[in-house]
Inverse folding.
């Protein structure tokens, strides 16, 4: 049962991302192999955690293997590379993303960061600004950014994620005309059965 719930949670998140990518594919490019970067913190890095910070490995991580399979099942071959770094905050991520974009060609970059900002006291405004900078850097490198909001966290006792951070992330997506992937709504109603610890999905 635990394995089933794990798969359902990863599939739920991946389904949102896959549907967005598939909808953006033009008929002329339908046979093209998609190159996709997953960029973020431990949600992207996945378990078991790696000392090489995702390392750009294909088919490794929390949601990456599921996303790759979903796109393949829908007739869109894709290589999904993991560039997650557990524990990262957006002040670090906004600088790290340059090296990732320079070392890994991609058509899409899936950005999900900010949970650690909330935990360590980085303001929602700073988080939003840094994510906006990441979106700009992706565009400057010729990639399409998809900006994910934050899933629930039991340790967020003051409900800052839904009331401060996610609205700020949504504002950035709107201002930057970036696609917003709503992870929070995908899992909030079932978070009690989907969480592994106070912050991570199982």
């Amino acid at each position: 049962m635990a394995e089933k719930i794990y798969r359902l949670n990863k599939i739920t998140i991946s389904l949102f991302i896959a549907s967005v990518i598939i909808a953006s594919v033009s008929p002329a490019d339908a046979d093209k192999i998609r190159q996709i970067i997953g960029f973020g913190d431990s949600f992207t890095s996945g378990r078991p955690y790696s000392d090489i910070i995702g390392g750009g490995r294909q088919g490794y991580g929390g949601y990456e293997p599921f996303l790759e399979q979903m796109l393949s099942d829908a007739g869109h071959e894709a290589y999904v590379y993991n560039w997650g770094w557990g524990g990262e905050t957006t002040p670090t991520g906004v600088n790290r993303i340059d090296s990732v974009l320079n070392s890994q060609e991609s058509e899409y970059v899936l950005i999900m960061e900010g949970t650690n900002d909330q935990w360590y006291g980085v303001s929602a405004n700073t988080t939003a600004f840094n994510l906006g900078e990441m979106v700009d850097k992706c565009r400057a490198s010729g990639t399409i950014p998809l900006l994910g909001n934050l899933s629930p966290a039991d340790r967020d006792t003051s409900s800052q994620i839904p009331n401060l951070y996610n609205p700020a992330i949504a504002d950035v997506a709107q201002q930057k005309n970036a696609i917003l992937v709503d992870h929070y709504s995908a899992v909030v109603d079932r978070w009690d059965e989907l969480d592994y610890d106070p912050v991570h999905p199982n």
Observations:
- Residues 1-8 have pLDDT under 50 and may be disordered.
- The two ends are 12 Å apart (CA to CA).
- The chain has nine helices and six strands.
- The first helix runs from residue 2 to 24.
